[in-house]
Amino acid sequence: MDAIESRLDSLVVDVDGVVPMAEIPKTLKKLREARFFLAKMTKDSRSTKLAGEDFDFYLSAFLSAGRSVTLVLQVEQQDLYDAQYGPWENRLTPQDQALMKFMNGQRVAEVHLLGADVETTVEMVPITQIEMEPGTDPRYSISWWGPPGVPPPEIGRKVRLFRVCRDRASSVRFLLCFGRINL
Predict the structure, then answer these.
(1) Which of the pair, 177 or 162, is modelled with greater confidence?
(2) Residues 107, 67: contact at Cβ < 8 Å?
(3) Which one-letter DSSP state was computed for residue 92?
(4) What are the helix (H) ranges across 46-167?
(5) pTM score
């Protein structure tokens, strides 16, 4: 989200300098909301629970909040938005423009249709890579001992992927560029 926040910062520059952030508190709150749900998705993606819908709910909220950032800015600072948004959007790289279009398409699918296009698989990870919640009593942590050269046992964890393009090569390039949701 830091890249998004810096892009928002570049949007609020006018000919007289930077518009004070205090003038867009609702926009910044919406940005913090999107960041909140992204953090929830990140945390949930590390879980070994294979059942549950928490991630799906966080994704829906993230997509909605993320799209709302510029909409709130448009209401909060109409003149600034009208003067700056078009040029800002035109300065985005083709990859960022594609990402914005893709994310809005996912939001439309999630909110108005049958849901975002998310592929869910299970990946096996060594139990030694399972993270415990901060503050968890160390007596409940996962430990493993074995003879040298013997790998630790593995456990399944859900991985969710956005399918950006229909051809596999483009999807792989996108996933390498922007990463999986499983951060």
Answers:
(1) 162
(2) yes
(3) S
(4) 54-76, 78-91, 94-112
(5) 0.67
